[in-house]
Amino acid sequence: MTALVTGATGFIGGNLARALWQRGEKVHALVRPGANDIAIRGTGVQQFAGDLLDMDSLHRAAEGCDSVFHCAAVYAFWSRRPEGIYAANVQGTRNVIETALKVGMRRAVFTSSVSTIGWPDAPGKANEETPVNPKLLVGHYKRSKFQAEQEALTANEKGLPVIVVNSCAPVGKWDVKPNPTGRIPLDFARGRIPGYMDTGMNLVDVDDVAEGHILAMERGRPGQRYILGNRNLTLLQVFRMLADITGRRVPRFRFPYPLILGAAYVDQWIQGAIMGQTPRIPVEGIRVARHPMYVTSQKAVEELGMPQNSVEIALEKAVRWFADHGYIGTRS
Q1: Start and end of every Ketoreductase domain (predicted)?
Q2: Percent helix / strand / coil, the chain, rounded to 5
């Protein structure tokens, strides 16, 4: 198999590209010029300079590939140009689908997000069938991913079998940027967590997410969605795990939601509007975190055989990777 991986310099895409290469697969990676390629540097992954919005470069990268893992996306809860999020996430997905059809690929896996999963009406865990109300999708990232997922699913009607995987909150190695979830173990290890919010998430080892992508390509049913997650945890539980790993204290103070949201608006005004920098406390991120997103990955485990490795070990791997690559004690 020769697979194209978009977003191969990112967190999920980088781990996926490495996993495919380590299995002996031939891998093409679409890499934006100037991107930090440390996640795939020194591997046999063949890099093609290009961009999701550049059809010629997409075609060059896709030539000779029989499948595509479309992992590339703008994962951000703040942007000075929100239209850029939609261009990359929605139009970029259309372009990947069009390219895959043109070169005659046999199969595709689209990396979506747990953000596109609906909230259950009654207390409990959401699954792939929980309906989502698009009006309740908070922020540009969630809305763009929902639209992109719809684009991916309609490709099945055009003759390209597409499987959607909805990743939960991944942690582990090769979080180069790092992503919003990865900032949790990073900031905790730096001692920059003064308190916590009463919220929660579904945490998963990024290695399991990468394996889930490969299993979806091999065993997934076209037109189906598979939640790639593991354990539902409160943020305080995650901090307790990180305390055991790092030796730092668990934050004592639980900040009420209105206080955090107010601080986020102030931070976004100062950092974003005035200084032109990414806010440390993005308003969209706080609004998303107000409701814990607890889900079940039973479908992915039963149909695909997705592994469920220890999230404590995943957090430990994340902290160790950040330490080994000089992130702890820096301002990255």
Answers
A1: 1-174
A2: 45, 15, 40
Query: Contact at 8 Å (CB) between 75 and 145?
Result: no
Cα–Cα dist 151/144, whole Å: 11
232 and 246 in contact (C-beta within 8 Å)? no
pLDDT per residue over 57-88, tens digit each? 999 999 999 999 999 998 765 556 678 889 99
Q: What is the pLDDT of residue 329?
A: 76
Q: Domain 2-171+203-230+294-308: state its class.
A: alpha beta
Task: Measure Cα distances from 221 to 216, 303, 308 in Å.
Answer: 8, 9, 21
Q: How many residues does the chain have?
A: 332
Question: Is there a contact between 62 and 48 (Cβ–Cβ < 8 Å)?
Answer: no
Q: Assess contact for 177 and 318: CB atoms under 8 A.
A: no
- CA–CA distance, 133 with 217 (Å, rounded to integer): 28
Tokens of 309: 């490795």
Give the sign of the dihedral formed by CA 144, CA 146, CA 147, CA 150: positive
3-state secondary structure of 286: helix
Structure tokens at 252: 């004592």
What residue spans of 71-205 are helical by DSSP H?
Answer: 82-86, 92-103, 139-154, 183-190
- 273 CB neighbour count, 10 Å cutoff: 10
Domain boundaries, the chain: 2-171+203-230+294-308
Q: What does the alpha-carbon distance between residue 314 and residue 332 come to, in Å, rounded to a whole number?
A: 21
Q: Which of 9, 89, 103, 15 is nearest to 56 (CA)?
A: 103
